[in-house]
Predict the structure.
Amino acid sequence: QANASSGAGIHDDCKLRFVELKSKRMHRFITYRLENQKEVIVDQTGEREATYEDFTKTLPENDCRFAVFDFDFTTPEDVPKSRIFYIFWSPDTAKVRSKMTYASTNEKFKRTLDGIQIEMQATDPSEISLDVIKERAH
């Protein structure tokens, strides 16, 4: 039984989907949510063709999420590259209990996803705008 101080459990599916994104490149993004404040589960996955805008639209205005986004870009030298972003979405408008449970689960959950290259935390959309992502990727 998980409690607020130890964070929530993590469903096996979370890691499986992440491996699909990282190794098999089957998804563009994955969002994860806490089910009943007790277990992290896969919330949504985005097809490879999905855009960054498609991804940001899945982040709820009044609740937290963990998310990974596989960002493709081209370097100034014309080399195609990709970075896997981990985003801890915790909007100011989310309920305090939700923010606390997500925060206490964040480190543990992040450690289960082997292959994250860039970590970010955001409380509003401007903190994870496409410009910010592009800047962090390089």
